């Protein structure tokens, strides 16, 4: 089993170490271990903190906050969730939420052209560019209900967001869904751009139309103006 420190990029480990070694965080781990005795928890432990493993702390420029990891299982011990919000390197087909996100990016950033979705749904390349692909809960009990682990993880997620808000400037934030929007008051840094939209999973209730509010277009313009960068979404 991976050691906790090995699950974090060095910059993140140094920034979060006091909390990660606190009694509160250890208690969170104990609760997950206890629950895993009679429930299947996704993703596997070695993937749980991939958002902090692949997004370098020094490079963070974007936070995309969703709700839960994907709840499904592909094969025994292989889960749809891979520790990066909306990513699924193990999937054989594109998860619906990611498909809606890719369609929105194609519309918002590439004007419907020159954006190849392809057959790879591993979003590690996004994370490596400084995008923190985070969920409000880093784990989910398969067969459970939306948000089942949000309360469990909320103190940790809040600590992460407060740390970034305090130490990093010029970050674009996309809050997807009601659970994510609840963290909005944390972002008090005046250099941030905060955008909101419904969670892409809601599109399933209206025939595949996701009300994304042009958040990726706003993010694209923000980064060009304030950070002089363009994210490569391909």
Compose a concise summary of this entry.
This protein is of the alpha/beta class and 234 residues long. It has helices spanning 10-20, 23-35, 45-48, 50-54, 96-108, 124-128, 150-167, 178-181, 215-227, and strands at 41-42, 62-66, 73-75, 78-79, 131-135, 140-141, 172-176, 193-197.
For the record, the CATH class is: Alpha Beta
Can you tell me the number of structural domains?
1
Question: Major sheet, described briefly?
Answer: 4 strands, parallel
- Identify the overall geometry: globular
CATH-derived topology: Uracil-DNA Glycosylase, subunit E
The separation of the N and C termini measures 32 Å
Q: How are the strands ordered across the major sheet?
A: 5-2-7-8
Structural class: alpha/beta
Beta-strand proportion = 5-15%
Low-confidence stretches: none
Could you tell me the radius of gyration in angstroms? 17 Å
Q: Can you offer a commentary on this structure?
A:
With 234 residues, this protein is an alpha/beta fold. The protein has a single domain (4-227), classed as Uracil-DNA Glycosylase, subunit E (3-Layer(aba) Sandwich), CATH 3.40.470.10. Helix content is 37%, strand content 12%. It is built from nine helices and eight strands. It has helices at residues 10-20, 23-35, 45-48, 50-54, 96-108, 124-128, 150-167, 178-181, 215-227; strands at 41-42, 62-66, 73-75, 78-79, 131-135, 140-141, 172-176, 193-197. The strands form three sheets. It has a four-stranded parallel sheet. A two-stranded antiparallel sheet has the order 1-6. Helix 5 crosses helix 9 (215-227). The longest helix is centred in the C-terminal third of the chain and has 18 residues, at 150-167. The protein starts with 9 loop residues before the first helix and ends in a 7-residue tail after the last helix. The mean pLDDT is 95.
């Amino acid at each position: 089993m991976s050691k906790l420190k090995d699950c974090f990029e060095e910059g993140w480990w140094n920034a979060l170490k006091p909390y990660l070694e606190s009694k509160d965080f250890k208690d969170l781990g104990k609760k997950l271990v206890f629950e895993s005795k009679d429930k299947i928890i996704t993703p596997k432990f070695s993937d749980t903190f991939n958002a902090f493993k692949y997004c370098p702390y020094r490079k963070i420029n974007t936070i995309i906050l969703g709700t839960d990891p994907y709840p499904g299982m592909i094969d025994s011990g292989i889960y749809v969730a891979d520790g990066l919000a909306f990513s699924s390197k193990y999937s054989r087909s594109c998860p619906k939420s990611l498909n809606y996100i890719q369609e929105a990016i194609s519309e918002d950033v590439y004007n419907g052209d020159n954006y190849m979705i392809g057959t790879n749904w591993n979003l590690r390349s996004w994370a490596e560019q400084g995008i923190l692909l985070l969920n409000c809960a880093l784990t989910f009990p398969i067969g459970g209900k939306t948000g089942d682990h949000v309360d469990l993880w909320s103190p940790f997620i809040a600590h992460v967001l407060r740390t970034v808000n305090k130490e990093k400037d010029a970050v674009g934030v996309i809050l997807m869904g009601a659970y994510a929007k609840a963290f909005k008051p944390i972002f008090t840094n005046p250099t941030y751009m905060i955008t909101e939209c419904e969670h892409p999973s809601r599109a399933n209730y209206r025939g595949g139309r996701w009300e994304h509010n042009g958040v990726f277009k706003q993010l694209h313009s923000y980064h060009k103006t304030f950070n002089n960068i363009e994210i490569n979404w391909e």
